[in-house]
Amino acid sequence: MNEEKHKLSMVSGRLEALGDGIFSVAMTILAIELVLPVVNGNKWIDFMHAMSQSWSGLLCYMISFIVLGIMWFGHRMMFEYIGKTNRYFIFLGVLFYMMVCLVPFSTRFLANNTLHWFAILVYGLNLSLCNLTLYCQWLYGTSRLHMLHREIPADVKKEAHIQFLLSPVVYAIAVGISFFYPIASIVIFIITPIVYLLPSKLDKYLP
Questions:
Q1: Is residue 30 scored above 50 in pLDDT?
Q2: Per 3-state DSSP, what percentage of the chain is helix, strand, and coil (rounded to 5)?
Q3: Confidence of residue 178 (pLDDT cuts 50, 70, 90)
Q4: What is the C-alpha to C-alpha distance for residues 89 and 75, in angstroms, rounded to an integer?
Q5: Angle in degrees, CA 83, 87, 93, rounded to 5
Q6: Residue 148 in 3-state DSSP?
Q7: Which end of the chain is more exposed for a tag (fewer CB within 10 A), N or C?
């Protein structure tokens, strides 16, 4: 009884705050790493030529920024249901944050080697590991009733499984295609976050 009295209550607020900070830093680094185009001349064609040299960096920046925004939202929604943590849940969170911090690196790598399979592999693997580590954290937290501060509806659980696992499967397809048709892989990277922005069954639980 005395041990129960002195047991620590590890609420999720500190872990959420750490996540917010990591996401903000990672997204800021994405912008900082953009290479400014050098325009040699004062004509429209000079401007277009300079921008053509920077298209891959801008494209990869936009994809990654939107993807991180979607991941942050999923991370935020997870803590609408999970209110307490323990050391294992925190460790899974640290793994997720580690993958998030790698996104600026894999983004820059893809920007510099846009149509090369190895860059597509690194980028796709990085984003997949982000989703999978967050999914593991979700599974762990939601399987322990004492860590929840509200009941999770069945349709939320079902839709969450789909949302978490969809992108790793799609990214695996993108990596496979990259050996033969890398431009198609880039198109997949563009389309995938757009799919997550479409209305879903989870919308009815949002304010």
A1: yes
A2: 75, 0, 20
A3: very high
A4: 13
A5: 70
A6: strand
A7: C
Q: Which residue has the tokens 């996401």?
A: 23
Across the range 109-134, mean pLDDT stands at 95
What pTM, to 2 d.p., does this model score?
0.89
| Residue 157 CB neighbours (<10 A) | 13
Structural tokens at position 32: 């900082």
Q: Cβ(10)–Cβ(85) under 8 Å?
A: yes
Residue 19 in contact with residue 71, Cβ under 8 Å? Answer: no
Residue type, 98: M
What the block records as the tokens of 108 is 């820059």
Look at residues 190, 163, 158 and name the one whose alpha carbon lies nearest to residue 174.
Answer: 190
Handedness of CA 80, 85, 89, 91 (dihedral sign): positive
Angle between helices 117-142 and 154-178 (to 10 degrees): 160
Mean pLDDT of the chain: 87
